[in-house]
Amino acid sequence: NMIFTSGEGSAMTIDIAGRASTRKSLVGLNQQLKAVTSFESVSIPLGSFAKEKDIDFSIKIVVKEKYEKQN
Fold first, then answer.
1. How far is CA 64 from CA 43, 45, 61, 70, in A?
2. Which DSSP letter does residue 29 get?
3. 3-class secondary-structure state, position 69
4. Measured at the alpha carbon of residue 49, what is the angle toward residues 15 and 38, in degrees to the nearest 5?
5. Measuring CA to CA, how many Å separate 19 from each of 1, 22, 25, 56, 70?
6. Helix (H) or strand (E) holding 20
7. Is 62 helix (H, G, I), strand (E, B) or coil?
8. H or E element in which residue 32 lies
């Protein structure tokens, strides 16, 4: 699931919920998202990394303001 939120005077956020097959794949996704230069922050709760397999997770991404205004 993905939810995009943008309110007046606040940054655009993207909330993602899903299931990772392994902790390694979730770590990889986290690293890839943190490398995206248009994202100000990427947050995954630490508890998401507790299990090794079949991990339900949520991610909150804040988009940098300069990228929001281009669209």
1. 14, 21, 10, 11
2. H
3. coil
4. 40
5. 10, 9, 10, 4, 31
6. strand 13-22
7. strand
8. helix 23-34
Residue with the two structure tokens 């929001």: 68
Classify strands 13-22 and 2-5 as parallel, antiparallel or unpaired. Answer: antiparallel
Based on its alpha-carbon atoms, the radius of gyration of the chain, rounded to whole angstroms, reads 13
b or e along 54-71 (b: 16 or more beta carbons within 10 Å of the residue's beta carbon)? ebebebebbbeeeeeeee
* Residues paired with residue 19 on neighbouring β-strands, in sequence order: 56
Stated pTM of the model: 0.81
Digit-by-digit pLDDT tens for the chain (71 residues) are 888 888 666 788 999 999 999 999 999 999 999 999 999 999 999 999 999 999 999 999 999 876 655 55
Joined tokens for residue 56:
């339900």
